[in-house]
Design a protein that fits this description.
The protein is built from 5 helices and 5 strands; from the N terminus they run βαβαβαβαβα. With 128 residues, the protein is α/β, with parallel strands linked by helices.
């Protein structure tokens, strides 16, 4: 299964995502904000197969973290997915311009999250 980095500032949601993805067989690394996600992405060996992050986080937004992670050569093709309640067209476009691969909107069911993650990993050519 895949290694997934999850950045979410709300602890309860972060733990729900962690449990859901681990139950589906994935390895999960957690970050509480965009800055932590960027630092973990830089230090990861091996790098995660996918990054899921919230948009609105303290210290560094998901948009900024996504832009900076995309500047790392080894992350050019890594799926970066925003999991967020922010689903208006302009916000989705801002995320895509920052380098996001896809959006998953909150609220989500664990089954829907698992299904979407599997679809995105498959499209990226990652066994998941």
């Amino acid at each position: 299964m895949a290694h997934i980095l999850v950045a979410e500032d709300e602890r309860d949601i972060r733990e729900l995502i962690n449990f859901t993805l681990m139950f589906a067989g994935h390895t999960v690394t957690l970050a509480a904000n965009g800055e932590e996600a960027l630092n973990q992405a830089k230090a990861a060996n091996p790098k995660p197969d996918m990054i899921i992050m919230d948009v609105r986080m303290p210290r560094m937004t998901g948009y900024e973290a996504c832009k900076r992670i995309r500047q790392i050569a080894s992350y050019q093709d890594t799926p970066i997915v925003f999991l967020t309640a922010k689903g208006q067209d302009d916000e989705v476009n801002q995320g895509l311009e920052a380098g996001a691969t896809a959006y998953i909107l909150k609220p989500f069911s664990p089954d829907d999250l698992t299904k979407r993650v599997a679809e995105i990993l498959k499209k990226a050519g990652v066994a998941g």
